[in-house]
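Q: Structure for this?
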Amino acid sequence: MPLTSVTKDPETLSLTVVGDYPVSQQRLWDAFADPRQLERFWGPPAFPATFTLHDFKAGGRAEYFLALPDGGKWNGSWKFTAVNPISSFEAHDGEDNAGDANMPAGMTFKFETTPTGSRLTVVTRFSSIEAMQQTIPGMEEGLRAAMPQLDAVLAEAR
Amino acid sequence: MYNQMVVRRDETEESLNQLFRALADGTRRDILARSLSETVSVTVLAARYDMSFAAVQKHVAVLERAGLVQKRAHGREQLVSTNHARLQRAGELLEALDAIWRHRMAQLDEVLLTKGK
């Protein structure tokens, strides 16, 4: 199992996720640096994410949307505050593509080499509980979706 | 399994922050646990902790402001009981985030394993 731990801290409104993967640190980094790979795992499978912008450098932005079952879109965007290949990057996460000032969450991604491959540690900090909610709705709908079609998508990527 | 979370956007940010601040303290979580299945008086609670009646009263007040417990007077006693709906909501938010990340990391694993090494 890739997922090592999820730590929920209500006091600091943060969530820490650690995953260990049997691939090199470079390979793990590439999955985030390449928007075509990133969109295959960032959104829930039946509500695929499409990244329309991925300017992966400090000060750059990423913009994406999730296709919702009712035909609508859930827009999201990141503003990169630090990008250090292949060891870490930081981004603010917002629900909409407008208004970077009040982005509800800050995310820090750390990449390390381990004896068995590589480790990803993601710390997400929310500015408030309201902010926590804002990052959930689109995802929450997506969570009810089935997983099976993911295999087909990934097979294409080979 | 996921909680079917109802997102109520009209809930104010401040009230939500109060909710989580209230849950952040060990004594308050203990008070909450004790008032979960039965109504307890502040006097009975105060006898259980190594702190003053006033200090326990303050903890109860924080829980009350966050909507986690309700207090009612019974003679000279103040009785405390848990607001179950509110407590459940705090857990739901974190569970939803937990579920999102479990999916995401599993999907990342499949991407890594299927596309090159």
